[in-house]
Amino acid sequence: MSAPDAPRVGVVVLTMGTRPDDLARGIRSVLDQRGVATDVVCVGNGWDPASADPPLPAGVKTLHLPENLGIPAGRNRGVPEVGGVVLFFLDDDAFLPSDTFLADGCRMLADRPELGLIQPRVVDPSGLASPRRWIPRIRKGDATHSSPVFSCWEGAVLMPRDVFDAAGGWADTFFYAHEGIELAWRVWDAGHVAWYAGDLEAGHPVIDQTRHDYYYRLNARNRVWLARRNLPTVLVPLYVGSWTAIQVLRWARNPSALKAWFGGWRAGWREHPGERRPMSWRTVWRMTRAGRPPIV
């Protein structure tokens, strides 16, 4: 039982119901947390968590989304279902190895009010080497080294609710890919810092990512939308141009990938990206001083 003054954390667990064992492990790791009070909802994206077999643990709320709304929209739908001044988002294949993870994270937020988002270090439970992409910075360095960041791995994210609200939540329209970049940018624009905590650990198995045309298309479309939604007008072509050059160099020997990518690139300009909230020039300067101007 948590102490009366323990921080209350609203936990949103997102699933499509395809990983029942992993889902059970993740939820159990949340319920086993010490030093906090948790309010947990399991959001089923196109699946009803109330039908889980075996049933989810007592006290875990369920939210059934009849159709798959996409990853960011699914997370957003879970937020009103939970209380707490701190929010924690957990994917169904991630879990918390330490039973003080949430208490440690809440203490970090309390001690450093400038922090608006925390992404932990991600470790494979079987001991496999973690992919470098899980460290959300250009100069990866030591995975245990903490630093400001300008994107996040979205599978385990802790943040104050008021910062989440100020940032406008996850980008509903993205469906998949780059929503962690936008959330981090908007945290910076809200006057806070997105933080990679190398001293906090989340578990997640190393999985070979399958790259398909749909992935390449959304990767490009959302890269354009990211710029159109969030950057001052003059920076939009600079950001999109730099990433276009990077992808052409990266996939020069994979013409099918480039074809799908440019299909998404064109869609990013033709289709409506949703709400535009350009960051202030003060935010551009803060991000630049912190090591990552929003042009690449």
UniProtKB/TrEMBL annotation:
Pfam families: Glycos_transf_2 (PF00535)
UniProt cross-references to Gene3D superfamilies, sorted A to Z: Spore Coat Polysaccharide Biosynthesis Protein SpsA, Chain A
Pathway, per record: Cell wall biogenesis; cell wall polysaccharide biosynthesis
Keywords: Glycosyltransferase, Transferase
Segments forming domain Glycosyltransferase 2-like: 18-164
Superkingdom assignment: Bacteria
Xref: SUPFAM superfamilies: Nucleotide-diphospho-sugar transferases (SSF53448)
InterPro entries registered for this protein in UniProt: Glyco_trans_2-like, Nucleotide-diphossugar_trans
Family membership: Belongs to the glycosyltransferase 2 family.
Protein's name in the database: Glycosyltransferase
